Amino acid sequence: MPNIKVFSGSSHPDFAAKVVDRLGIDLGRVVTKKFSNLETCVEIGESVRGEDVYIVQSGCGEINDNLMELLIMINACKIASAARVTAVVPCFPYARQDKKDKSRAPVSAKLVANMLTAAGMDHIITMDLHASQIQGFFDLPVDNLYAEPAVLKWIKENISEWKTSIIVSPDAGGAKRVTSIADSLKVDFALIHKERKKANEVSDMVLVGNVTDRVAILVDDMADTCGTIVKAADKLKEAGATKVYAILTHGIFSGPAIARINGACFEAVVATNTIPQDEHMIQCDKIRCIDVAMIFAEALRRTHNGESVSYLFANVPY
Amino acid sequence: MVEIQESVRSRTVYILQTGSKDVNNSIMELLVMAYACKTSSARNIIGVIPYLPYSKQSKMRKRGCIVSKLLAKMMCKAGLTHIITMDLHQKEIQGFFDCPVDNLRASPFLLNYIVEQIPDYRNSVIVAKDPASCKRATSYAERLRVGIAVIHGEAKTRFDDDYEDADEDGDDGRTSPPPLPARQQGRLHSSVSMSSFMERSEPGAEPGPVTAAAAAAAALRRGRPRLRSAASVCFGEVDPSRIMSVGVTGVPMQAAKEKPPISVVGDVGGRIAIMVDDMIDDVRSFVAAAEMLKERGAYKIYVMATHGLLSADAPRLIEESAIDEVVVTNTVPHDVQKIHCHKIKTVDVSILLSEAIRRLHNKESLSYLFRNITMED
């Protein structure tokens, strides 16, 4: 493909490699390093003048370093006369801080959006934003891809009892996402609501709906410390579910997450590779991975060719 | 035409305007007033907009506009330096504005109404009219210490929040076949088979044995064994069967999503059902939900909402429905509707707005006004 350059940040090189592999091009040469005072330094190793530049960087690992690196890479390409700079951010950082839910809470997602725009970004491609309203935080095009078709495919291929299963939301906020999946599979849904006193801390859980003698599939957009989904799984078992699966788009799995999953009653915990899962999969047998790099490759290719991307919103590319 | 008839130079100006029936005119009037104050050297221009219009259109569906964002931009551009509003449809809308937004909540007033006016409210269940309003329902349930139930599946309404319309972009001639995975194959001859395969798997094609076979064959031609080995190399000792790559095999076209028939998740039998939402505009979904709740044994049905728009023939529908009472606040004028329907009750929230303005003007903290608000509300 002419006039296209894809660069990878240091957060998820594997993902970038898969994307360019699919596109049939080479990854652009870029060196990212740190000065001794820990400032990030980026050297773009090839000409980008007049090119359509894509920078692949996910919000994972050292989030702040990776965000800074992305900003610097965007700016480096922009001032080197790139025709267009598109950020490909499989997992958008700070997406959970998208509203002022208590006094003086920052809307950091908006801040990140402003920073990316200020750095010179022209377009962003991401997946399953925590709230789709984040699209409105930007003044430029945002392509928010859905992992849902891939999730449906995984359920149909890997859970033999899916026709009698029940889709469960671990909190009230995810009810909409869950009903969308339940409707596609033509199965029932249930939800767990809780009284949460602080962030990342759960207390009383109440199950609404009937899961007795059924396979329960917990679905959420992200799981970090996994406290919520592990307690939800216990609750479901207690209520008579035969097996419990968890499916997440962004499996952050930080802190005690892996130990918690290892000790919980999950049949499997499924996450996409918007965040690197290799390490997690080695540490935990229960984690399964859905590779969504192809969806991004296809979105990137269509964007570059000026074709419609809407096809991807309903379908995983073949 | 707007004329500001007294001096505003170096003053703090509060403009009170709500999204009423004639919504576009009220927006335009607000913008013109704000800009008039700005050009007349007002120091601060604070918009008090109890009901922010267009807030349902806060996310992108297909190629749609995020109108709420556009409105936010327009208001900031017109010179508003601060917004006071109430019960935004989505709290994320706060992030659309480039100026501070104070999103007040009417829920303490509505909760107070429940406690004082509904005898036996302890035997009630809070009902979310659709899965999207679950969060709000739990916040009420938590504070009243009662259970919740969720209604799902309904007749389509005007403001349906789904992205489910059929799409006809598949064959507008702007879809080129994807290239081969690089470096894995001689690209020349197999590009032909690739493109023919792509044609078959385009939208509208039936996933049949032919496609499946073609997919398998194409996968083989694309050098799947090497792809696998590459995967297992980068995944170390992880069993490749634990990774599902969405690129390798086909996914059948999804049928257009259809909502299932209306049903209730959770128990409402022998209870008072209280439906809570942020606004009531088109009441048909509420009426359908109320019938469902009656059928399931709820003996009294209340509807609570902050913004009572009650447009079109809402009063008549409520009057004829199974709903016992509709409780709304006075963020939007609805006196005409009340004449037509005696079931509509109003809770006055003006004291909250005036207290917010007073505190803001005296540079005091507003957090006192949020003391009984949970994270979900």
UniProtKB/TrEMBL annotation, chain A:
Ordered alphabetically, the record's keywords are: ATP-binding, Kinase, Magnesium, Metal-binding, Nucleotide biosynthesis, Nucleotide-binding, Transferase
User: According to the UniProt record, what class of enzyme is this?
Assistant: transferase
**Domain annotation Ribose-phosphate pyrophosphokinase N-terminal: ranges:** 4-120
Q: Pfam families recorded for this chain?
A: Pribosyl_synth, Pribosyltran_N
Pathways per UniProt: Metabolic intermediate biosynthesis; 5-phospho-alpha-D-ribose 1-diphosphate biosynthesis; 5-phospho-alpha-D-ribose 1-diphosphate from D-ribose 5-phosphate (route I): step 1/1
| One GO BP annotation of this record | 5-phosphoribose 1-diphosphate biosynthetic process
Q: Which PROSITE patterns match?
A: PRPP_SYNTHASE
Matching SUPFAM superfamilies: PRTase-like
Q: Identify the InterPro entries for this entry.
A: PRib_PP_synth_CS, Pribosyltran_N, PRTase-like, PRTase_dom, Rib-P_diPkinase
Q: Which reaction does it catalyse?
A: D-ribose 5-phosphate + ATP = 5-phospho-alpha-D-ribose 1-diphosphate + AMP + H(+)
The keyword Repeat is assigned to this record: no
Recorded GO molecular functions are: ATP binding; kinase activity; magnesium ion binding; ribose phosphate diphosphokinase activity
Enzyme Commission designation: 2.7.6.1
Task: List the GO cellular component terms.
Answer: cytoplasm; ribose phosphate diphosphokinase complex
Q: Assembly and interactions? A: Homodimer. The active form is probably a hexamer composed of 3 homodimers.
Concerning its family, UniProt says: Belongs to the ribose-phosphate pyrophosphokinase family.
Q: What does this protein do?
A: Catalyzes the synthesis of phosphoribosylpyrophosphate (PRPP) that is essential for nucleotide synthesis.
Record-linked NCBIfam families: PRK01259.1 (NF002320), ribP_PPkin (TIGR01251)
Protein's name in the database: ribose-phosphate diphosphokinase
Q: Give the organism the record lists.
A: Amphibalanus amphitrite (Striped barnacle)
UniProtKB/TrEMBL annotation, chain B:
The organism encoding this protein is Amphibalanus amphitrite
Q: In its UniProt entry, what is this protein called?
A: Phosphoribosyl pyrophosphate synthase-associated protein 2
Q: Which UniProt keywords apply?
A: Nucleotide biosynthesis
Limits of the Ribose-phosphate pyrophosphokinase N-terminal domain: 2-79
Q: Where is this region: Disordered?
A: 159-210
A single cellular component GO annotation: cytoplasm
Show the InterPro entries listed in the entry: Pribosyltran_N, PRTase-like, PRTase_dom, Rib-P_diPkinase
**Keyword NADP appears in the UniProt entry:** no
Q: Which GO terms describe its biological process?
A: 5-phosphoribose 1-diphosphate biosynthetic process; purine nucleotide biosynthetic process
Q: Could you confirm whether the keyword Chaperone appears in this record?
A: no
User: Which Pfam families does the entry link to?
Assistant: Pribosyl_synth (PF14572), Pribosyltran_N (PF13793)
User: This protein's superkingdom?
Assistant: Eukaryota
Composition bias of kind Acidic residues appears in 161-171
Q: Which family does it belong to?
A: Belongs to the ribose-phosphate pyrophosphokinase family.
MF GO annotations: ATP binding; magnesium ion binding; ribose phosphate diphosphokinase activity
